[in-house]
């Protein structure tokens, strides 16, 4: 039995640190160069090929160091299998975005969003709305796929730059994802550190609260400095174009209400999104009959079936009298997610090889040797989370591995487990979406239609959270220590 399982302990013990870091350095350097060459088209295939080539390079090092291809293959298959739910969600989101466009849900949200909001308060309102949705649903992914997509439409209609829109959506979504008791990463961080869930959440608010307040202030200041002169003239044009093409009704809220309602009731994301797709199909047939009939012109007797199927897997383009809306009312369906799926498969393969060959463990061990005090302990934990996000492309691994790695060290140094669980969330959870080849970064870029490097500078909450946890550690603000009698008990157990 043991012979078939990945055995990274032997190669990790004597592997030089520079050799363990070499694939990560080559990957980051090559991807940076590739982005410089290809720009926004880097994720169309070239970045995926680079990850595959560097995976081969890492695998070759592993073979030379004594890790068999069988061991590496088992690890790659295991990491990819862990990512399969994310891939299925991504494919469903592609279908959902297209059918919600055809049924009028997205245009309706854009219509009322443009009517109610204005550029001055849009970023603030967008961030708050996404935060509340994520807090209730416990998922940044579901938030981005539902209200996030609608907010992109509203923001573009108001001529807000894409980077700011994406930053507001992701900042709000990840606030809710961090502190919601329904969030998988929140529960994971609490579980791997053996911290009571609500103890973890309450302690997390000490750093999360200031981060989101500063974020909202920044979006408010930016909003008041947005030029609104051209937008005020175009609003009526946008509203008229939407009314001319779609039947606008509040009944079109049914698909997102059903989807979010199922998620709140702790139904798994895949059946919840599937229900949202089915609801979108029904709404399209009931409320957008004129639009569907227009798209059916000149088609055969199976036209209705073909239009629905083409919308789900191939996307839909709906033309209006407004040029800007023509770009907005275009979705690529499941087919549009294939490049992102390819990216995830390549990235998870790299992470699997790194883990099987012991390179990841070697990097982790070297980081632990740098710990000398509480600040360095937190800094090393944060650095480990970031390196894991970069090298394994998965936020769950970036929470779980450092959590297991540092749990004993925090106890040995006399600090309660919530110090560790908070650091895992402040660094491992929120930085994943800022990395293009991470599953979270790839997902949000694909769903929102905004490049990772475009929204990254404006994800204020995600950038502030790691800095806030380091600041609290430096000044020893509200740091919880293990009581002396508890420390003695721990020592006697481990002795």
Automatic annotation (TrEMBL):
The keyword Isomerase does not apply. Its main location: membrane. Residues 172-475 form the Na+/H+ antiporter NhaC-like C-terminal domain. GO terms for molecular function: antiporter activity. One of its GO terms (cellular component) is plasma membrane. Pfam families: Na_H_antiporter. InterPro entries: Na/H_antiport_NhaC, Na/H_Antiport_NhaC-like_C, NhaC_Na-H+_Antiporter. Keywords: Antiport, Cell membrane, Membrane, Transmembrane, Transmembrane helix, Transport. This is Transporter (NhaC family). The lineage of its organism: Bacteria, Pseudomonadati, Pseudomonadota, Gammaproteobacteria, Arenicellales.
């Amino acid at each position: 039995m043991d012979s078939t399982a990945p055995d990274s302990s032997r190669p990790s013990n004597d592997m030089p640190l520079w050799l363990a870091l070499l694939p990560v350095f080559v990957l980051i350097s090559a991807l940076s160069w590739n982005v410089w060459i290809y720009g926004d088209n880097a994720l169309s295939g070239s970045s995926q090929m680079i990850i595959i080539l560097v995976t081969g390079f890492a695998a070759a090092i592993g073979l030379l160091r004594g890790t068999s291809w069988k061991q590496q293959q088992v690890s790659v298959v295991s990491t990819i299998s862990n990512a399969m739910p994310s891939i299925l969600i991504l494919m469903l989101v592609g279908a959902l975005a297209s059918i919600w466009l055809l049924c009028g849900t997205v245009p309706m949200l854009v219509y009322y969003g443009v009517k109610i909001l204005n550029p001055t308060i849009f970023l603030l309102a967008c961030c708050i709305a996404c935060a509340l949705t994520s807090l209730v649903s416990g998922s940044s992914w579901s938030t981005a796929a539902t209200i996030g997509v609608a907010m992109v439409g509203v923001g573009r209609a108001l001529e807000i730059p894409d980077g700011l829109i994406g930053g507001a959506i992701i900042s709000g979504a990840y606030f809710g994802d961090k502190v919601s008791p329904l969030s998988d990463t929140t529960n994971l961080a609490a579980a791997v550190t053996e911290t009571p869930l609500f103890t973890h959440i309450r302690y997390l608010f000490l750093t999360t609260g200031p981060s989101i307040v500063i974020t909202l202030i920044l979006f408010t200041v930016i909003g008041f400095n947005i030029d609104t002169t051209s937008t005020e003239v175009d609003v009526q044009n946008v509203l008229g174009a939407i009314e001319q093409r779609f039947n606008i009704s509040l009944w079109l809220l049914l698909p997102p209400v059903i989807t979010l309602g199922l998620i709140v009731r702790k139904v798994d994301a895949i059946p919840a999104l599937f229900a949202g797709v089915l609801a979108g199909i029904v709404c399209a047939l009931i409320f957008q009959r004129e639009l569907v009939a227009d798209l059916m012109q000149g088609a055969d007797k199976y036209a209705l079936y073909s239009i629905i199927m083409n919308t789900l897997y191939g996307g839909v383009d709906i033309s209006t009298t407004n040029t800007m809306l023509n770009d907005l009312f275009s979705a690529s369906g499941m087919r549009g997610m294939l490049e992102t799926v390819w990216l995830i498969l390549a990235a998870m393969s790299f992470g699997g090889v790194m883990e099987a060959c012991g390179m990841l463990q070697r990097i982790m061990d070297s980081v632990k040797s740098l710990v000398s005090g509480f600040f360095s302990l937190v800094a090393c934990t944060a650095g480990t989370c970031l390196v894991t996000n970069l090298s394994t492309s998965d936020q769950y691994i970036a929470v779980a591995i450092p959590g297991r790695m540092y749990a004993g060290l925090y106890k040995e140094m006399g600090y309660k487990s919530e110090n560790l669980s908070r650091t895992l969330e402040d660094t491992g959870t929120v930085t994943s979406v800022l990395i293009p080849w991470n599953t979270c970064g790839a997902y949000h870029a694909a769903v929102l239609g905004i490049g990772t490097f475009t929204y990254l500078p404006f994800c204020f909450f995600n950038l502030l959270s790691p800095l806030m946890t380091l600041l609290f550690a430096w000044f020893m603000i509200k740091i919880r220590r293990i009581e002396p009698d508890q420390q003695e008990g721990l020592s006697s157990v481990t002795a």
